[in-house]
Amino acid sequence: MADTVLDPSAWTCPAPLREQGVVVMGHGGGGALSAELMEHLFAPAYGNDVLADLADSAAVELGGTRLALSTDSYVVRPLFFPGGCIGDLAVNGTVNDLAMSGARAAFLSCAFILEEGTELEVVGRIAQAIGAAARAAGVTVVTGDTKVVDSGHGDGVYVTTSGIGLIPRGVDIRPQRAAPGDVVLVSGPVGMHGIAILSVRESLEFGADVTSDTAPLGGLVSSMLEVAGDLHALRDPTRGGLATTLNEIAAAAGCGIVIDEHRVPVPEPVANACGFLGLDPLYVANEGRLVACVPAADAEAVLAAMRAHPCGTAATAIGACVADHPGGVLARSRFGGTRVVDLPVGEQLPRIC
Fold it and tell me: Where is the PurM-like C-terminal domain (predicted)?
């Protein structure tokens, strides 16, 4: 038998190697590779103090008015899924990014990239969903664009939305403001969007239907602001799930975060699906949930306000910000053990938004 020459460069592994010279799917996953792409490629190229905050939306001042700006692209596959489609996902995603700075979205732009051969009926359904979602969120789509690419050079429909909203006076919400002693709240069950996408993409059944949690969160944030003396940090745990969001907050604030894993609300079908597939529900994407870091003195009032809103009926306190292990996240089990909850390197479920 002839000698075989092994070429390590041709080996593959579940998590892409960090020294990649090309774009890999993990760069779009919201985890460590996404962070490296921003830190080492985009941030140096753009270089400004506003971008350095790396928040869900940028807070800027124009003519004495504080504005929040956000933009996002949506490449979800499939285009339609239980609980929504790429259209309402695009609206809610941008509205929610603005809400995470305390802003109420006012106007959106919407751009379509269409693949040649896509049925106009499909495009029409998506456009109708965008209009309905915008009306439900109290926002107006005021401008847009459409481009068409050759057949085989797209995936049906991609959507990009950008939004602008007003930040109320006195509101200063950003991940850098999370502080030891803050209570960490989550607005509802996690993991539903990612599992809903996976169920239709792979034709899997998990004993019960799982629908996406996609929803606009502007009204929920307004309810929280009405009762809180100060909200320190808000983030929506989309790509990379709850675990990635907590790590981003801890890193930005320079504090540690400890959560009680048994307090994290994970629906039984999501838990079953994750157990079957070997996934960690803390890393599965959401599209209608938020994480809040709130001073302990305001936590009960904020939690009550969240539970009184339709988007926060199952809101739960899951942990706290601490002075120990700055920049790190730990999860405590029901039995007292702990584990490190780190940033994911690759991507558990690509193309979920």
Answer: 180-325
Closest-CA residue to 70 (of 108, 31, 44, 41): 108
Q: Quickly count: other Cβ atoms within 10 Å of residue 329's Cβ.
A: 27
The rounded distance, in Å, linking the Cα atoms of 353 and 347 is: 13
Neighbour tally for 280: CB within 10 Å: 15
**pLDDT tens per residue, range 129-138:** 999 999 999 9
Spatial CA neighbour of 303 closest among 227, 189, 214, 237:
227
Would you call 255 exposed, middle or buried from its count of C-beta atoms within 10 A (0-12, 13-18, 19+)? buried
End-to-end CA separation in angstroms for the chain? 49
Q: C-alpha distances in angstroms, 163 versus 110, 119, 341? A: 9, 28, 32
| Nearest one of 238, 201, 191, 195 to 80, comparing CA atoms | 201
Strand order in the sheet with 140-149: 58-62, 65-74, 157-166, 104-115, 140-149
Which secondary-structure segment (H or E) carries 84?
A: strand 84-85
What domains does the chain contain, in order, with CATH numbers? 55-166 (3.30.1330.10), 175-340 (3.90.650.10)
DSSP 189-202: --SHHHHHHHHHHT
pLDDT in tens, 67-125: 999 999 999 999 999 999 999 999 999 999 999 999 999 999 999 999 999 999 999 99
